[in-house]
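User: quick one
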Amino acid sequence: MALLRSFPIVLWGLVAVHAEEGMWTYNNFPSQKLNALHGFAPSEQWLEKARLASVRLAQGCSASFVSPNGLILTNHHCATACIQDLSTPEKDYLAKGFWARQEGEELRCPNVEANQLAEITDVTAAITKVTSGKKDQEANEARKAEIARLEKAAATSENVRCDVVTLYGGGHYELYKYRRYQDVRLVFAPELGIALFGGDPDNFMFPRYNLDLSFLRAYDNGRPAASPNFFAVSKSGPKEGDLTFVSGHPGGTYRQLTIAQLELERDFVKPHLLYSFSELRGNLVQFQQRGAEQKRVSQSYLLSVENTIKAFKGEQAALTSKDFFKQLQAKEVDFRKRVMADRKLAFGMGGLWDEMEAVVKRERALFLRYIYLAAGFRTSLFAHARQLVRLADELAKPNEKRLEEYTESRLPQLRQYLLSTAPVSKELEIEKMTFALTKLVEALGPDDPDVRRILGKQSPREIATSMVNGTQLDQPQVCKRLLEGGKAALDQSTDPMIGLARKIDPAARAVRKQHEDEVESPIKRLGEKLAQARFAVYGASIYPDATFTLRLSVGQVKGWMESGRMVHPFTIFGGAFERHTGSDPFALPGSWLDAKEKLNPQTHFNFVTTNDIIGGNSGSPVFNKDLQLVGLIFDGNIHSLGGNYGFDPEVNRAVAVDSAGIMEALEKVYGAGRVVNELFRPPPAP
Amino acid sequence: MALLRSFPIVLWGLVAVHAEEGMWTYNNFPSQKLNALHGFAPSEQWLEKARLASVRLAQGCSASFVSPNGLILTNHHCATACIQDLSTPEKDYLAKGFWARQEGEELRCPNVEANQLAEITDVTAAITKVTSGKKDQEANEARKAEIARLEKAAATSENVRCDVVTLYGGGHYELYKYRRYQDVRLVFAPELGIALFGGDPDNFMFPRYNLDLSFLRAYDNGRPAASPNFFAVSKSGPKEGDLTFVSGHPGGTYRQLTIAQLELERDFVKPHLLYSFSELRGNLVQFQQRGAEQKRVSQSYLLSVENTIKAFKGEQAALTSKDFFKQLQAKEVDFRKRVMADRKLAFGMGGLWDEMEAVVKRERALFLRYIYLAAGFRTSLFAHARQLVRLADELAKPNEKRLEEYTESRLPQLRQYLLSTAPVSKELEIEKMTFALTKLVEALGPDDPDVRRILGKQSPREIATSMVNGTQLDQPQVCKRLLEGGKAALDQSTDPMIGLARKIDPAARAVRKQHEDEVESPIKRLGEKLAQARFAVYGASIYPDATFTLRLSVGQVKGWMESGRMVHPFTIFGGAFERHTGSDPFALPGSWLDAKEKLNPQTHFNFVTTNDIIGGNSGSPVFNKDLQLVGLIFDGNIHSLGGNYGFDPEVNRAVAVDSAGIMEALEKVYGAGRVVNELFRPPPAP
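Assistant: Done. Structure below.
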């Protein structure tokens, strides 16, 4: 029902007009404002500890250290891929849960990288120096080269990861230096049935009853890593009205886009993706009917597709809400008016929005070729082939001339991915690749020369079947040999998937270049100008759109009004048992049914806060001003999806697992004493 | 690529400002205007002959008589369901084609009704008399009762079908009296591979190479029906520039909707349906991978789903085109201004558009409950159960008090449907029903009381499996017994599907009633007022929106400009062989490959005209002023989909099979001498 709701409240975005709004960078946190509102101003030390206790999972999630020994708390859905990768037909950890009773049983995730933000350096001057005075395309290339140079220079070892991040849409560049952990092991995960209780129907809904958590551990040289900065876990959880902080990595918000860009999103991009994902979902759901093993190997993929669909639908509901969109339009009108009212500022800005509209037209014209040839085509084995082919070509170039994902600072994560031992289901790969090729034909048309070159006289299914069955890229040692053998090994390979990647690559690179030159480059220039104007008009106390960099948000535990009724901010264990029907996705696992008598039904299970979060924040710690962890972010309510474009403090809510519920479940359902002990009686750091 | 196009040309709709625009009723055909433009004014006799040679297939298509012995020409895709229904695992007529070498081999379609429009009577006065002065809801009920009464009074036998149709959105009511044929038999159908050559990728595209035809025959008392009014088939087909008429049954256009109604369509209804259909498509495509038999039994269903998706996407492309929508807005502004400029007319019209906006809000709020509980849920076996349950209840009421689809005049078609011998695949039904129930939960939420009552503690798949496996409604004799046994038999039935229909019916009827009272009734009143104003402002020479009633449109054979290049109006046989790859959907059938040497590659295959058509026109004859059939409508180009909302003469095109191609294929590929002889040397009527 939630998708039907309109979004009637005035919202803003970027200029935080509400206490709760804002995904603040750690080096521009509005302590004064917080002090004025809540009588609490975080100290530098407090901020540093929170930052160092925060963890990014490089594949797209947030997390935190919860013991001095590298123990990491994150969501179950942030570790689903790892849990599935470690499973076998005989040991299905996704369905049954996982629990390492001793350190030696902790299992390394094939493809997880954890990052801890160690240092932030402003590099705006260096970047603007190399781009100033250049035309769009040249400036874009110079910017990328300088970023590659800066990142490489700062990364002193493989354990250090350096990313130059663009903030405020181009007005500001900072170098984020992370401690990198690639040996990350699974410690504990409950059953999917309770982690995702209610499944897709309950996703982005509240009240909720999910134990959406997992424990991982960062290792250093084969030993648990030292993590002196960590959050102590509160056994009692928060109370209604408590001030809450969330430190995490929101993936992306689009509150600064122009109306022309939002219209493209609303009228073309999102609908196109939603049709595709919906079809893929139907395909996967039916694929799972082939049998239990097929269900097992496609489970994490289907869950991610379903989550994407629901998130996109919520975002579309916001964009197609007349009231909501009118407010976004009003925001742009106000901004333009203020810019034009300042003669100095107005100079050179007059045609900016029209120019953006022209770029958007170009973006639309290129969109399908771009996503299907350059960006898309994301089946695991084809992606491996493309990465190997490109890597060999790119490594032959100097660092500054490479495509950005092959610059030195990105290589460790790429190598981890290519050498991952995660099993690949060829049966599922055939379906994914058939689907991808079918969509390619549909998007570009059967007469497109690139489509003809790729398909020849074969159907998508024929090609997918012969490629997937013929390739050996599912074997890590084959990938390793090709990776280490470089261009020579690649050129000699007769692997059909490598052959296909080679065949597609010229067209893929061409459309990517075209997109960079005609869309990305001018948007960057326009973005910089808009950012400068925004600072000039609204002052320095604004926050940048989310970019999967660490942010701190402030809120409180608080319900909201839904259709005239107040939604209470907490749910309790008893509610989960009431909601249990016995049928998936409303079936509690046996462990919970067995433990029912031992559990206190009044224990808080999930709760909501007014913190401003978005996708990528999953796994973020919720903590109080004493830096005690009281909850674990795992979702937003349906209204929070409009937060992509603008924040509405009346109804936007973050959804978290209560730390009281976590403790009770660990102790009474799972008897996970080792973890509980570590959380409460942390042994001395090694 | 077509979906990317914008719709830049000024369009109108309903007020025919272009020569080609207009789906004219036979009793208001603009002969004068045609004469002025083309020097040809159809006589009354000409119009009568064209009307009587036109055929409606009541399940949703158009067709025509092409011999005096009841021979009917329509599309393959209008007979796909019949062809599949008549097939078995051993005899797959869809894949292999069907050809009755003698009359005795013609096979009766389980569920096809053909209608010939015999008479039109204006009943506006009778209807407005019973509704005038009444409030919306009362007026709606009185209107329905009067319609039921008029239809029953006019239908003198089971062979006569009478429908009161609403024209001009409510301004006008006419009684359409049809000769009804329920014994309709399959005579000839080519292989699906050539009927739908190019499949979904080529659907709504041009150039095309489709033999999208089938021949049926109407029977009367077990003998071929006499059809003295028929179209003679031209062996040479049309030439570029030729004047063309199309007589058929466009299903529905929405050129008169207010902007508020169009916004609901664009922002909510269409996207929702497209997500659903896309998911269903993915589901069916993967279902077909279970095996050849599963592919066979789901083929016609999948084709209809794919066609719907592509049509909807084209319509959305029009509605989300900024230029196109601006023109629709300008049209409304112009209309409102003219209404307001006329003081007499303006009285009582001022708040009309705002009132419509309020109704639209209500419509949106009710939409999901309405389509999932009242209208939706269309799996064959559940639909049978619901019809049987309702019919028993409705027949107990007087004709005028029944739900409209159970009034006397509708019963013959309903009985045909319920007693159909078309086979039902229970395996496919389980999937359809699982999908429908899953969408119901998703749309209304797992906590909705009706959802809870329907699902209980079971999952959608569990219910679907037990219902479908447990029901006997797939057996025609069981349906017959329940149909003839009436309420008593129904009440005693322990069939689980009947039980489910009983369980859902109170909620389904309630939301339908709510929808009738709060949406349908006020829209009818507002529609009547708008229609009256439209007549007053624009005069009598306007055409009503399409309503699946017989219409005549005028056009000519003419290409169009696409991305700066002229698209030639004809394709030839040679092009089909060039396009042949050997892989589905670009694989010509063996019969064509074998006949290649005998065929003249220059023979015209398909062509385009400027006729104004829409879905439902499929199977319509294209004929010249001598009433010779020169083509067979089977599609529109991608731009024609915007025709749902406004006609653009520059790019809107109807797509037809050329009669020259039809003749050559029948003779040289199929050796279908019996049909060719009947088309050219019609034997004396029996």
